[in-house]
Amino acid sequence: MQANEQPTISALKRKVSREYLLSIFLHSKSFLLLLLIFFFSEPVCIGQSKIAKVYQLEAAFLYNFTRFVNWTSANPSGETQFVIGIVGRDPFEGYIDEIVKGERVDGRSIVIRRYDDVSNIGNCSILFIGFSEAEKIRQALKKVKKRGTLTVADSPNFVKRGGAVEFFIEENKVRLKINVDAAKAEGLEISSKLLNLAKIY
What's the pTM value of the predicted model, to 2 decimals? Predict the structure, then answer.
């Protein structure tokens, strides 16, 4: 693969399986855990040419949260589909659409919905708050409060401000911070397997 060539969706989904356990199927719980561990342990050199890679990893995390978070209500948002919302500038450039294509959560198909402004946020089970909306984080959190929404962002101090999951870079690796109380307040139960890999706020 050339230095500037983007990995394919299938290559990303199968990467751990190919390199560590070729016999494990994509959607087994053990595979998904290895996938997360692999992402945590893979160095990411932060530079203009590597930003896309960071967002590909974050997109994969958003998908895998559907396997490691329990929405205690059968359908907290009242949707017939499992909605992953993105508010503000979308950094994933369609990548997340491909990675969730054909996937389901509790029988509901996963769909991506984009909101150009915090005021337009609709019902969603996961909400990614783009960096462009960093100044409106409190409004975004208020908009989805008590809707059973897992809030995610890569803005500094997101969990400190009441968000549930924060992406950050440490020692050139993608890491997570998790605000357990914020998740519980939304009726969400996060797997201990994921908590063990994160910094708990």
Answer: 0.79
